[in-house]
Amino acid sequence: MVKTASSPTNTRRGTPGVDIFKLPGASYSGYFNSYKTGDKQLIRMPYASTLEFKLGLLYMEYHPHVVRFQRGDISPEFAHAHRHATPLSVSLPYRINYPFEGKSHEYWPDYIGILSDGGLLIAEAGLTKEKLKGQALAKADAARRVAQLKGGEYWIATEQHLSDRRFKNLLFLHRCRDAFGTFDEIAAALRADWPWGEERCVREIIEHWGSRWSDDEVEAAVWKIVGDAAAAGKLVVDLSEVLLDLDTPLNLLDPEAPPILPDPLPDSLEGMLAAEQSPSEELADDEEAEATVLSDDGLIPGPAYDPEELDKESRETFNRNRDAVMAVLSGQGVRQVAEANGMVHSALLYLIKRVNEYGQIALVPYGVYHRDPALRPAFQEKIRKLYKSRMRPTVRAVERDPELRALAEELTKLEGKLVKPPTYRQVWWFIRRIENERDIVEARSGLKHPPKPRMSPTSFVRSITAPGLICQTDEHDLDILVVTRDGTVVTHRVHGAVLICVKTAAILAAVLSLDSLKEEDYMRLIKQAIERKDKLVRLYECKNSWPCHGKPALVFHDRGNIFTSERAQQVLVERFHITTERAPAFCPQAKGTVEALFVWVMEEVTHRLPGTTKANPRDRGAYPSAQEAAKAGITLDVLEMYFIRAITDRYMLKWNDLRNQTPQNLWNDAVRQYGIPKWLGSQDDLKLMLMKAHNRKNPATGRYAIQDDRISFLGRWYVSPGVLNQLRGKEIDIYYDRNDISVIYLFLEGLHVGEAYCAEFMGQRVSLWEANAIRRASAPLKKAAEAESLANHQEILVKARSGKRHQYEESIRMERQRLLDLRDGEIHTDQVNATVRALRQHQHLQSQEESPAPVSGGFTFEEDEKDQPARPLAIRPRRKPNG
Length: 883
Fold this sequence. Notes:
- By secondary structure, this protein is α+β, with helices and mostly antiparallel strands.
- It has 31 helices and 24 strands.
- The strands form six sheets. It has a seven-stranded mixed β-sheet with strand order 4-3-17-16-11-14-15, sandwiched between helices.
- Residues about 1-25, about 280-295 and about 855-875 have low confidence and may be disordered.
């Protein structure tokens, strides 16, 4: 069908782009802030893998010849929607055509940039095994030709070219390049006192200038100067070999001197491909075959074997075999050695082949011997599949499985001759051979997630240089109920989250929530990590200090909905320069530390407190969790106190086997050696990490309009004397903490102008969940009180409108009652009168409870009955009606 101009498909125009949080074929792992985007407002740079992060931040950001760079695989609409800088005047995505297998394809590079001489830079990052494939080589060849035509270069970076130590050092410097108020003053003094080419360490400079400025300001200024010098190529320190700390000698070059360049990246991996694909020469005769299996250094290949565990006869055979193989390795002929040791020539050749395949264990008699069960490949595959099933069957169960018999019948039909199923002995021999294979062991372990093998001979935790450089955040449920101050049980499960320094296992922050954690809770977690915790320690009366505070450089998280919103990226990446990344697979030690912490908290803290739920009713048995929680009266504030005290007084002092020290000592030692960047900006800026409220009644902007000297927020009135009056007629933004809604923070056009306080919670800390629970619990009581009050009010109105006759009778009744009360005072004593009045009041209350309506209307007043004179009762005679 031919589409006309009026066809609806022609009116739906647009540019097909990438998914919101995805690159071609891969998801965004995180963002880092770049100083080479050409725009101070747009500094966010996304990356999809750790190698891309290392290439962008490690190499291009700190290469003096790279002037500007950006992503090359995003569309302009995507860059505009997510505030990604595009300083290069090229069409995006940057397409490079290349042929492969007779077809034309398009290639989008990871990064493109401009060099100092104006040439085009094309950079790509990836694993070596991926970049050595045929299509990847075709992409690299096309990109290399395009870069040469543009007078530039093509760089390809793999895990073999990017130094991990250099990356950690530059990551440490990158988080220290934040400007602050007194930097220009301190930098001018340091430049005058620190000549070019002279070595100084940070600790020495702090001791010299610490009396004029604070130690934190001097330390931050020095590291910022060093970081800027490293980006310009003026730092005379080999970052690939030296770990930066407070005692590292630092030397800066003259600005007029040529910059120091890092190790160059290759533009091709063809040399590595040739080394991998070099064919082994095939030798024809026996002597050449012996040369291929024998070692050049005269040693038997493979691990050593201790023959002391063998019996005497087997030990003698082992020594004879070893002497024969060593004689062949020394250069003697195989036939001569075989005759000298009483061996057959072919047996010695077979022994040498087995030694080359298995090592020294092949010299042991029957050491690597196994009998081939002569099973068909189809039976072997079926037995392997059955043995790996979730039922974890025995050998007898596998041998009697009907699938083996069905397979034998199928093979009989295909081959036209009888094929018998394997016997028990054949199945037993085959399973014995494969039972130690890794996939078999994992399948029969019963674990839902088998542990991953080590991917590196070095420890990821031990490779981290400075404290707070890499942090890990995670959440967990705490099996305990909390109540409000009036005893109302909050039936939500408590959620907790912590931020842990991976190097020292110290906890930088911890938050609790009665709802599933949101992005704002994790931002509040980082806010707590940056702030000092002295007030928190004093408030909760902790026995030990909590010295862990500072700005983290890289935060690992394992949930896709954390730190992904536009506001979170603006606050964390663009304002505080904190990099966030989904936790990669190479750091299971960090993940295990967080999980172990929450397991310890549950076993040692929450499961031993009253009100614990212990996960399910079967575990807690007849334990009434709600009743015990109400009886204990543990509020969210009190639970947070216990949680913080468990961290400071127990966890931080607990011995860590992996790091061979307590987390508190590890943190203090690391800070003394490397330092930790502090937040030197305004404390009001940290309020931007709180939750931002959105007014549903104002969908256009989501702001709140000030029309009076008070403001309604979340169904409660907030006042701020002297602030709200000045904001009358304007729209403001509100930031608040879900753990304390007694105070809200007011922002006018992005500027913090003050706070407003809830008169209902004045002087108390009440969380959002506790306030809602109190409101839900008081709703039926409020309804009943309103109903009773309304009924009494209506009864009063009915009796007030009942006429003159009824009012006259009521006045006569009250006058008689007063006379009786006065007479009782004359006859009885005060004690008897008090007892009689109490009995009358008790009977009156009982009559009110039994009858649906009050016995009498009106109000009851108590009068002093002492010394009241008796007055005669004057009764006016009733008038007869006229007529």
